[in-house]
UniProtKB/TrEMBL annotation:
<dbReference type="InterPro" id="IPR002225">
    <property type="entry name" value="3Beta_OHSteriod_DH/Estase"/>
</dbReference>
<comment type="similarity">
    <text>Belongs to the 3-beta-HSD family.</text>
</comment>
<dbReference type="GO" id="GO:0006694">
    <property type="term" value="P:steroid biosynthetic process"/>
</dbReference>
<protein>
    <submittedName>
        <fullName>3beta-hydroxysteroid-dehydrogenase/decarboxylase isoform 3</fullName>
    </submittedName>
</protein>
<feature type="domain" description="3-beta hydroxysteroid dehydrogenase/isomerase">
    <location>
        <begin position="24"/>
        <end position="288"/>
    </location>
</feature>
<keyword id="KW-0560">Oxidoreductase</keyword>
<dbReference type="Pfam" id="PF01073">
    <property type="entry name" value="3Beta_HSD"/>
</dbReference>
<dbReference type="GO" id="GO:0016616">
    <property type="term" value="F:oxidoreductase activity, acting on the CH-OH group of donors, NAD or NADP as acceptor"/>
</dbReference>
<dbReference type="InterPro" id="IPR036291">
    <property type="entry name" value="NAD(P)-bd_dom_sf"/>
</dbReference>
<dbReference type="InterPro" id="IPR050425">
    <property type="entry name" value="NAD(P)_dehydrat-like"/>
</dbReference>
Length: 358
């Protein structure tokens, strides 16, 4: 019997999706809410935590009650658990495994690289049609050199300063190479410095810097630029990519796409607005990058030999002193991406840092 749009059965497998790490990832949480608000999806949330905590009366909690959302604990190393979470979904959004990463390179390799192989294998076994991976713009950053409006033609670095970025690049390559095989279409999105409610990486990193002896210093001239991306915009890009893959746009399948707010900002102005919003003094004393790198040498040695993080390390210095801006023309052209929330730094950052991080 024919049904109209409003009476569509939300249990229809063709409109069921799985969001891997949709609880621990800020982008994942935003994507889950966007999918539920659209009314088009039944959303399976799969994460490493044993249960899902959410506020009463929220869109997610109401969706859990009526069956439009569900939660399952997974381990990407366990294909049987992945199969249980994914089977019946037409699309899988993979948000990354940042919540479970370790200091051990080997353990991270198992989680990121072998885990991605498991996800791809299970997607093929379960006849998933689309796999969209939330990668990172850092997969093309060698940790040393500036990037000025880099686009998708940039190769992966032959050597990474940060081993974690190397593993992320390997995971991304696996996703892209899997496209077109066994009916699975894939693509990878590369957000630059995602931030927003629930952020456990960028803003905590800045706050820890502000609390340390380095909080009053600017590394280098302070003129370096970076792209920063609000999490809701990254979530929106995932939904745009899914629609593009549905339309069988061959220029999207098997391709990476950079995603930003389209407005690069001075890194240290971004940092200053956050630390000021949290009640810290903005950094004002400039230090030469070479001097700080010299100071960081023993800390790098300790980390390399013992795996112990002490003080400031060279990877952090380059991250704060290098320019890293990206060209989003491909995302705009091929998946119709435009930011849904503009980056009005002076207002958005102050509001968010005060209300969501304190």
């Amino acid at each position: 019997m024919a049904t109209d749009e409003n009476s569509r059965d939300h249990r229809n497998p063709s409109r069921t999706c799985t969001v891997l790490f949709g609880r621990s990832s800020p982008v994942g949480r935003s994507l889950v809410l966007s999918l539920l608000r659209s009314g088009d999806w039944t959303v399976r949330i799969a994460d490493s935590a044993p249960s899902l905590d959410d506020e009463r009366g929220s869109v997610l909690s109401e969706s859990l009650v009526v069956g439009r959302a569900s939660y399952q604990q997974i381990d990407v190393r366990d294909q049987s658990r992945l199969r249980y979470a994914i089977n019946g979904s037409s699309v899988v959004f993979h948000m990354g495994v940042s919540d479970t990463l370790r200091d051990s390179f080997y353990e991270n390799h198992v989680l990121l690289v072998q885990g991605m192989k498991n996800v791809i294998n299970v997607c093929r076994e379960c006849n998933v049609e689309r796999l969209i991976y939330n990668s990172s713009a850092d997969v093309v950053f060698d940790g040393v050199h500036d990037i000025h409006f880099g686009d998708e033609s940039m190769p992966y670095p032959w050597k990474f300063k940060d081993g974690l970025n190397e593993l992320k690049a390997q995971a991304e390559m696996l996703v892209l190479c899997a496209s077109g095989r066994n009916g699975l279409l894939t693509c990878a999105l590369r957000p630059s410095n995602p931030f927003g409610p629930g952020d456990t990486q960028l803003v905590p990193f800045i706050v820890n810097l502000a609390k340390s002896v380095w909080g009053k210093f600017i590394f280098g001239s302070g003129a370096n630029m970076c792209d920063f991306t609000y999490v809701e915009n990254v979530a929106h890009a995932h939904m745009c990519a899914e629609k593009a893959l549905c339309s069988e746009v061959t220029t999207v399948a098997g391709k990476p796409l950079f995603v930003t707010n389209l407005k690069p900002k001075k890194t240290w102005e971004f940092v200053s607005l956050i630390v000021e919003g949290l009640g810290y003094q903005r950094p004002s004393i400039h230090l030469p990058v070479r001097l700080i790198l010299f100071i960081a040498m023993p800390f790098d040695w300790v980390y390399g030999k013992l795996g112990v993080k002490l003080g400031v390390r060279s990877a952090m210095i380059h991250q704060l002193a290098c320019t890293r801006t990206f060209n989003c023309d491909s995302a705009q052209k091929h998946i119709g991406y435009t930011p849904v929330i503009p980056l009005e730094v002076s207002e958005l950052l102050r509001f968010w840092s005060i209300h969501f991080f304190c």
